[in-house]
């Protein structure tokens, strides 16, 4: 099914819609980013619920004593980089780095939501608008996996971008 | 983490959910931003229009449909090719009038509402799937066909089926084909 095109177009319309109904200025820009991020958060939570449901059905016959899927935080981040990213963007994260103290940097060299936009520095100032939803997506996914975090993104040259995840210890 | 091959197809199912979940989050946000149902409906229609004008290119590139010679042919293609390609469903088509410019698409399955049980309280005239109407309208306009597209029936509002009505309007004059004498 060609619904990647549908999602891409919907995402782009959402970004321009949010910004169209807002005024200029730093504060408004922040509000728009927050709106998009919050929508991504909800979707991220929903996706993890769906993954859990589907895997539960598939795995019913495989349950052992130890039913915990993830050993630790790093395991969860690897899941986000591999399975979660593949489910959403049809590819894996290209590079995962961590300082082993709760900060992870996920690098995607060909981020699907930016490939159609530019290859290089053109439109760089608009890139953050197109990353807000995905930051929320990661944050929402982690939230449903029991991790509270803050997710930001940075782009130096499209379509490569980096997502920084800061785990919040409760 | 190694995993058996049969788990991979499961993730394809979830990929379809991405669009449905995102759409749900969007409608929820719009309900927060706009008090009146008509405003939300209008916003969704406008958004759909923007998507439709671009989606049609993607559709034509993927489907290689030939030239259509009648409104009913076009409606059949929308139902059997486009809906199938993007939403995985095939609505049935009926023609509503004798001049053959009013059609209905009857959806017995609607993936957009898969996670929606009922409309939120106080939102009884919300056309949850109004994006679809805008998409069809925008796509048709890009191929020089003006049409009115609305929801005639909606399961979420208590009707027995979900029905989208397409009314093709008089074709705009093609000025460039007029010969200068």
Going by helix content, strand content and strand pairing, the class of chain A is: alpha+beta
CATH homolog superfamily of chain B: Trafficking protein particle complex subunit 3
Portion of residues within helices of chain B: 40-55%
| Number of separate helices of chain A | 4
- Biggest β-sheet of chain B: count, sense, barrel? 4 strands, antiparallel
Subunit structure (chain B): Homodimer. Component of the multisubunit TRAPP (transport protein particle) complex, which includes at least TRAPPC2, TRAPPC2L, TRAPPC3, TRAPPC3L, TRAPPC4, TRAPPC5, TRAPPC8, TRAPPC9, TRAPPC10, TRAPPC11 and TRAPPC12.
Protein name (chain B): Trafficking protein particle complex subunit
Subcellular location (chain B): Endoplasmic reticulum; Golgi apparatus, cis-Golgi network
InterPro entries (chain B): Bet3, NO_sig/Golgi_transp_ligand-bd, TRAPP_component
Structural notes for this entry:
The complex is a heterodimer of chains A (170) and B (181). Chain A has 170 residues and is α+β, with helices and mostly antiparallel strands. Chain A is built from 4 helices and 4 strands; from the N terminus they run αααββαββ. Chain A has helices at 3-20, 26-59, 73-89, 132-144; strands at 95-98, 103-108, 149-157, 160-167. A 4-stranded antiparallel β-sheet of chain A has the order 1-2-4-3, covered by helices on one side. In chain A, β3 and β4 form a beta hairpin. In chain A, α1 runs antiparallel to α2 (26-59) and α2 (26-59) crosses α4. Mean pLDDT of chain A is 87; it is low at 63-67. Chain B has one domain (16-113, 126-168): Muramoyl-pentapeptide Carboxypeptidase, domain 2 (2-Layer Sandwich). With 181 residues, chain B is of the alpha+beta class. In chain B, strands 1-2-4-3 form a 4-stranded antiparallel β-sheet, with helices on one face. Chain B has 4 helices and 4 strands. Chain B has helices spanning 8-33, 37-63, 71-87, 130-142, and strands spanning 92-95, 102-107, 147-153, 162-168. Chain A binds chain B through residues 1-7, 9-11, 13-14, 16-17, 21, 35, 38-40, 42-43, 46-47, 50-51, 54-55, 58-59, 75, 78-79, 82-83, 86-88, 90, and chain B through 1, 6-7, 10-11, 13-19, 21-26, 28-29, 33, 43, 47, 50-51, 54-55, 58, 62, 85-88, 115, 131. Chain B: It comes from Aotus nancymaae (Ma's night monkey). Chain B: May play a role in vesicular transport from endoplasmic reticulum to Golgi. Chain B: Keywords: Endoplasmic reticulum, ER-Golgi transport, Golgi apparatus, Lipoprotein, Palmitate, Transport.
């Amino acid at each position: 099914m060609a619904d990647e095109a549908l999602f891409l177009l919907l995402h782009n319309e959402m970004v321009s819609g949010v910004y169209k109904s807002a005024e200029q200025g730093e504060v408004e820009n922040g509000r728009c980013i927050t709106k998009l991020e919050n929508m991504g958060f909800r979707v991220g939570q929903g996706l993890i619920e769906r993954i859990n449901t589907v895997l539960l059905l598939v795995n019913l016959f495989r349950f052992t004593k130890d039913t915990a899927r993830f050993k630790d935080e790093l395991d969860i981040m690897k899941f986000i980089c591999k399975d979660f990213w593949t489910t959403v963007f049809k590819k894996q994260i290209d590079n995962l780095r961590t300082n082993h103290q709760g900060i992870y940097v996920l690098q995607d060299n060909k981020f699907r939501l930016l490939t159609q936009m530019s290859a290089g520095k053109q439109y760089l100032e608009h890139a953050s608008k197109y990353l807000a939803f995905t930051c929320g997506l990661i944050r929402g996914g982690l939230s449903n996996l029991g991790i509270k975090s803050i997710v930001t993104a940075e782009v130096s040259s499209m379509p490569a971008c980096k997502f920084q995840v800061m785990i919040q210890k409760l | 983490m190694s995993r058996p091959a049969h788990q991979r197809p499961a993730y394809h199912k979830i990929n379809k959910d991405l669009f449905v979940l995102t759409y749900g989050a969007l409608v929820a946000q719009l309900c927060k931003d706009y008090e009146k149902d008509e405003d939300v409906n209008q916003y969704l229609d406008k958004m759909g229009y923007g998507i439709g004008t671009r989606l049609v290119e993607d559709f034509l590139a993927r489907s290689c449909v030939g030239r259509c010679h009648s409104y009913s042919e076009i409606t059949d293609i929308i139902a059997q090719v486009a809906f199938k390609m993007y939403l995985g469903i095939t609505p049935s088509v009926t023609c509503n009038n004798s001049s053959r410019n009013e059609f209905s698409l009857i959806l017995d399955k609607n993936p957009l509402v898969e996670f929606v049980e009922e409309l939120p309280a106080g939102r009884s005239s919300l056309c949850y799937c109004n994006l679809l109407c805008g998409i069809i309208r925008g796509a048709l306009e890009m191929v020089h066909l003006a049409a009115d597209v609305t929801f005639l029936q909606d399961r979420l509002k208590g009707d027995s089926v979900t029905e989208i009505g397409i009314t093709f309007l008089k074709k705009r004059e093609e000025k460039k084909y007029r010969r200068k004498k």
